[in-house]
Amino acid sequence: MSLIISKKKPYYPISEKLRGYLQAYSRHTTFSLNYDDLLRYTDAFPLEDRYGQDTLWETVLYPQHIIDELHDALKYIYAIIKMDGDQNFSRHLYIDRIDYCRFANSKPFRIRVVNQFNDNYDYFYVKKADASRVYGLELEHILSPNRINYVVHEETLIEEHIAGIPGDVFIDTYLTRKDVNKVRIAKEFIKFNQRCFVKLLGDMRSYNYVIDITPDFEDEQYRVRAIDFDQQSYEGRHRMYLAQFFKENNAVVELVQQLINPDTLAQYALEERTLMARRARQAHQRMDDLMISMRQDSLSKPEKIARLKGELAEYHQEKRFMECKSMGDIVYLNMQVLLVEQLKNL
User: Structural domains in the chain?
Assistant: First the structure.
């Protein structure tokens, strides 16, 4: 049975409790530009990749009289996320392109920043500040091996670009190469699958994560990194939070089945949950503050909450899920079961 993702997930506004959390942990800032300001473009044309294929992004154009002001505001935002707002080293930067993706749930703008001295470029994203996504970013930052750089201003979310090879591109063009270490890829997918399920991060189809490749002294290391956090604890089916069940990931799932035996699979899963538990303990105050806010927030529809807590109660054989009142309650209990209670019993 195929998994059906809600195509039009509603936005959930940043609550006062969450905004207080963001301020306490330096995720809240002030700048002059809002997401809606970027919607004032007057023309757009399709953006193609280096092979002439449609990327589903459009490059947007703005009236001449607002370009300088707009670009200055975007350079200041880049200075905030990269240099803590210090603009002394941003004078040689310029905004080369602004792209817009109307098909993505968050309808993001992607800003391309170029260094005029050496033509090196970087990206960042401007999105509407959706509470679900912010919780997903924070959980990723605390519990995963990856650091996440983002800030919120009013109803606008700024995210640093996460570099890597898109999962679908990696599966299509890299996975069949002879020099690719398929065992390591299978291992990393198992770990990624665990992280998503513990945090209840959904919709990890192949184009919603990237593969980060790091050369090692004898081989290559791989890390799978989520780049889309829109479906953080929203859907009602527990399989939505297990990347292994999406058909777009079948090629990697088949690698796991071919190369990893059950005992080794269990070992890798346990390794990842143990590391997550250690990270949670090291950031226990931050984690507690985040969960206090998340458990009080509205992040999904009542029928989805009811279905998910019922499915997880059956999956874990744990009746306490039926007492959960919110998605935050479910995430909290899921982490308690997988990162605290199960590890204690080993």
Answer: 16-160 (no CATH), 165-344 (1.10.1070)
Question: How would DSSP label each residue in 179-226?
Answer: TS-HHHHHHHHHHHHHHHHHHTB----GGGEEEEEEE-SSSEEEEEEE
Element (H, E) at 99: strand 93-100
Residues 6+ apart with CB under 8 A from 318: 312, 333, 337
Do 191 and 204 touch, CB atoms closer than 8 A?
no
Under 8 Å between Cβ of 224 and 131: no
pLDDT digits (tens, 9 = 90+) for 279-337: 999 999 999 999 999 999 999 999 999 999 999 999 999 999 999 999 999 999 999 99
Residue from 211, 210, 232 nearest 220 by CA:
211
Q: Give the global pTM.
A: 0.95
Angle at which helices 182-199 and 250-259 pack, to 10 degrees?
110
Which helix (H) or strand (E) segment holds residue 279: the answer is helix 262-282
